[in-house]
Write a structure and sequence with these properties.
By secondary structure, the chain is α+β, with helices and mostly antiparallel strands. Helix content is about 45%, strand content about 20%.
Length: about 270
Amino acid sequence: MTLPIYTIAEEHFKIDNIEYLSPVPRHKHDCYELFFILEGEGTFFVDCQSYEIHKHSFFLVSPNQIHGWEDTHNLHGYLLKFDASFFSERSFVEYLSIFHFDTVNVSESEFLSFENILKNLYVEYRATKSFKDCTITNLLQILLIYVKRALPAKPVSHITNTLVTKLNDLMHENNYQLTPVTYYAKKLKTSVKLLNQAIKDSTGFNCGEFIRSKTMQEAKRLLKYDTMSCNEIADHLGFVDPAYFSRFFKREVGVSPKNFRNELEQKYHF
């Protein structure tokens, strides 16, 4: 199965109304996405996780994350897309680090503050007024700051968020292969100790655990959405010995890669 990858093209920013009455098949985007649900029901999928959609649901999707909708009913809201180049400094998105979460529970007052900004963004995006881009950029920055404030994570430093973001980028470039912490520390021109502390402060895991979790997440994605064999997936993820990959996957997930795929096929009728 080859999943479609959609691009935001040359706009770098887009906001639409959500009016989904039918399922949206799994797909990817090359940009960040924020889903704000004003009302409706359904199931939202991000990678191998599923979440119930309800009034005031709020979902965050990073570039290249697999996502889609099922069983939607009376779904209304806003879908916001942007890429990092929309901001003059990418460090703004790095500092926020809001896309470490798939979904966030927010209070009604917090959601209403989001909704007010979204309404203004929607109007401004479709207008032809002077200083349009500047206004959109400022409104988007305010919205992302509000989202940041709603997150449950404890505050971490700008350096920590930058390291986490750059590590995620490197892991993506490396196809999420199981790679030693020393490799990434060298690439990031930092010490293993500092990298471990940054990941621990941001995620609660040490760097080795974080890398393994990302490798297993990618293994699950490939087993669920790709037609590669288990041996091919092992090779793709940097495992020289397919048998070791199978043992490693079973230790981390609880079942073998083959059984994991078979269970998904039976459940979703792939």
